[in-house]
Structures
1.
Amino acid sequence: MERRFGTVRSVTEVSGGSISATARVQTSDGPIFLKYGAGSPERLFETEAAGLAALRAIAGDEVVIPEVLDYRDGGGGAGEIGWIAIEWLTPSGGTITDPERLGRGLACIHSARAECWGWEADGFIGSLSQSNDLANDWAGFWADRRLRPQLHLAGFGAVGTSEQWTKLFNALPDLLSVAHADGPSPLHGDLWNGNVVPLAEGKCALVDPAFYHGHREVDLAMIDLFGGFSARMRDAYLEALPLAEGYEEVRRGVYQLYYLLVHVNLFGGGYSARTMHVLQQVLAAIQRGSLSR
């Protein structure tokens, strides 16, 4: 690394995610943010670098997407260390001071369009693989590339019955038909508040993406799942990009089920009850006839 970034003068651990270690590395050429881990999945950091570059190309001026300086994947072996080096952005250490700017910035990202659902390369959600095979049908993509793989890992017993999930899958074409009116948008893909970093300059940085082109409501559903965002951010987003009727009634839950299944598979059964609760809410909405209307 020193051949690339200059002499390392100090390394200070910083708070980060649960998958990789993170540090501020002070070099003779300036500070960098380093994320690293032994035994990380093959192509994990390559995928993150590509996702950040894709977001950076379309993000506009309201949010910051950090520049990737270099990366090396470890190849998946237990003793092989992979890493990604990213420009150092100074965090404010506080809360989001301009949530409207964040809302407008997210709307700007979602305003870009792609021709197909998915992406040119598969990726990861946390350490779990995430298929991004291109598709023309969003409901099929959401079922086959998102829900079914995670459901297979979790097993029916922990997160609902086979009959319940079959009812959901059968309803998806109607539930998600509005997505085709919106079209495929670039998604951050893992937009919880830990991946939104308030900066000293007043803007927010978006980090650790699980990038692909999907329905923009997916990012909003993740935001709503774990909270931590101001209503002012949502209002600014909706002023720029209003939502079709039915998001809160049913589509939000459909999208949140994916992230809940991921959490079951990454962190254990503590998320099983919440997954079943959201599944029951969605099925109840289907029963009432709250589909894409």
2.
Amino acid sequence: MGYAMAQNVRKSMPSTGRLYIFDVFRSSCERFQIEMEGTSAVVVVDSAREAVEQAPTVISIVPNAADV
């Protein structure tokens, strides 16, 4: 999902919630984590699998059907 969409998801979550994020470009996740500091927990994980294992709800956006 895009950066702005992820920001909107984070901002609409309860303050007690945790958002687990993964991207092949870890630096993007780290920047997001810093920018969202103070809204509540943003947890950068090392793989999509780890995110799925940790989160009660999963949202995945891919460029096209072949990536599913």
3.
Amino acid sequence: MGAPIYAQEHGPELASDAARATLSYNIAALRHWWSGKTVQEISPETCKAYALARQRTPGTIQRELSVLSAAMGHAVTMERLEARRPMWAPAKGAGRERWLDRAEAARLLRAARSEPQARMHLPLFILLGLYGGARPGAILELNWDQVDLERGRIDWNPEGKARTKKGRARTPIPRRLMTFLRLAERRGWPTGPVVHRDGQSLASVKKSFARACAAASVAWM
């Protein structure tokens, strides 16, 4: 990647220390993921995979990828590169979340079931997000004592946590999600976390989720 060279050659031209520091930060973020990849590997698909791995706001991703684009433009100007590679970036003002259509959801679930280390818990995590509308943290903190399969509802507020006006809600369990929750309950561990690995709670599923999204060609911001 030519981004570090771009920083060395373009950085001194920037008007302020703050601008140079911002450029350095963006390039450090880019290098963490793109290191070891060639310019020829830059594509809309790899840009989406980068965005999923970064788990940052669309604005942050857009700024970082704009630096990558500028670095390619600089390389073209310096005749080190024939042409810029095609890229993708999130739209300006895009929200952090978006809804998946049925085809995307199906592809994502198939990819999740193929994740060697996560195939037993990642599909249920995704289903709770799709049908329950909850955020990742709430899903990973969800315990079976918050799930009432008889009445068909989930209380997303953990026991003992004060309920506020902006707190987590109680939601009905859609029929399709109910089917998967009953299957999960019958598989064992009817107490403790709903989404787990061998009964143990999970701090994060970011890496396995990002891999599944990339395999399914789904960009979930």
4.
Amino acid sequence: MMKTRGFTLIELLLALAIFAYASASILKMVSQSAQNTSMLEKMTFASWVAQNRLTEMRNELIWPPKDNLKGEVEMAGVTWFWRQTVTETADPRMRAVKINVFESVDGVDSTYELETYVVQQQQSSGTGRGSP
């Protein structure tokens, strides 16, 4: 009787199971990478919205009032909603500013939060640089 060389059915099934497991792991990794990229993109745009709002507030050149402001802005084809909260601190010349950015108008889950402190600027006396 002639002996043939080859794989048995058990060996083939085992190899197929190993291949299926490896393929599923790779597919899961690619899927998670895509989700992470999407989340990172959202976080980046939301941080830009918050930083833009902070810059607008600073450019107004007024001491920020202790109140809450809301607004919306479009960036990257998405409408972002922001809420600015200004609160007092222990130092009367300093205020805490918190800007939350949301993807939905209901403002439930914040995509990004920026918190900083602003200091009240001293009024110039006219004797500083640039004065005659």
